[in-house]
Specification:
Blueprint (H helix, E strand, L loop, with lengths): L2 H14 L2 E12 L8 H12 L6 E6 L13 E11 L3
Parallel strand pairs: 1-2
Antiparallel strand pairs: 1-3
Helix pairs in contact: 1-2
Length: 89
């Protein structure tokens, strides 16, 4: 399943439970490639998949300073935090 379809499916599941996204924060750690030039495009794609404005999406990136496998460019680590709002209250 493509990533955007998986994201849309997860979003529909929480929406059906009576929640909506209040804020989404993503932190990407990658030695390679440099992510910064892709951040605006990623925000647009996430915004489209979740039907939320890009102002509610934060994406940050770091290189990992060569301190681990990820920092040496041998992998990519992504952490995402989603703050939900109950629409039934």
């Amino acid at each position: 399943m493509p990533g955007n379809k998986l994201l849309e499916h997860a979003f529909n599941c929480i929406k059906n439970l009576g929640y909506e996204i209040n804020n989404l924060t993503v932190m990407i750690t990658a030695g390679q490639p440099k992510i910064s030039k892709y951040i605006d495009s990623m925000k647009q794609n996430i915004s489209k998949s979740l039907d939320i404005d890009t102002i509610y999406i934060g994406i940050g990136a770091t290189t990992g300073e060569r301190l681990s496998e990820v920092g040496r460019g041998e992998g990519i680590e992504v952490l995402a935090m989603v703050y939900l709002k109950n629409t039934k209250i």
